């Protein structure tokens, strides 16, 4: 199922210590986690479209979370990376974003994007889950929190 975040995530694509505090630099740092992803056909093209989309409208969801994303022909399947910042990254909304879920989805599959975004928004509604994301000590722990939250929402995988 395309909506399962836990099936899209990989510990190697989760950074729990994003160093950059400027938005574009932080976006690039998190995007780099996808540079060698087998489903990213053209990283520079994907990153360019991600930045262009980010300039159009804020991708902040509130509560210190954002979902920078691009619907692009530069990925062949949906890809996901996560970046967490202790300091927070200023977004246009005036909010400091502490956690980014970065998505790349094929233009031909808008339903997959909407399904993943819907799952993510439902997971992030829960305050204890949001807090757990911000305090997970390792990428593996972060993935367990994602899987547990999804199981509560969607049932077993």
From TrEMBL:
Gene3D superfamilies (alphabetical): Mannitol-specific EII, Chain A
Cross-referenced InterPro entries: PTrfase/Anion_transptr (IPR016152), PTS_EIIA_type-2_dom (IPR002178), PTS_SugarTrans_NitroReg (IPR051541)
CDD domains registered for this protein in UniProt: PTS_IIA_fru
Domain PTS EIIA type-2: 7-149
One Pfam match: PTS_EIIA_2
Protein name in the entry: Putative PTS IIA-like nitrogen-regulatory protein PtsN
Provenance organism: Opitutus terrae (strain DSM 11246 / JCM 15787 / PB90-1)
């Amino acid at each position: 199922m395309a909506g399962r975040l836990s099936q899209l995530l990989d510990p190697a694509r989760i950074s729990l210590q994003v160093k950059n505090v400027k938005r574009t630099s932080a976006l690039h740092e998190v995007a780099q986690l996808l540079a060698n992803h087998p489903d990213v056909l053209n990283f520079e093209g994907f990153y360019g479209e991600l930045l262009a989309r980010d300039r159009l409208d804020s991708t902040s969801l509130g509560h210190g979370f954002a979902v920078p994303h691009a619907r692009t022909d530069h990925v062949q399947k949906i890809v996901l990376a996560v970046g967490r910042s202790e300091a927070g990254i200023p977004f246009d909304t005036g909010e400091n974003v502490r956690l980014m879920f970065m998505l790349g989805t094929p233009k031909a599959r808008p339903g997959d994007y909407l399904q993943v975004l819907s799952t993510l928004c439902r997971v992030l509604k829960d305050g204890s889950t949001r807090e757990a994301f911000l305090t997970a000590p390792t990428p593996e722990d972060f993935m367990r929190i994602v899987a547990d939250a999804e199981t509560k929402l969607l049932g077993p995988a």
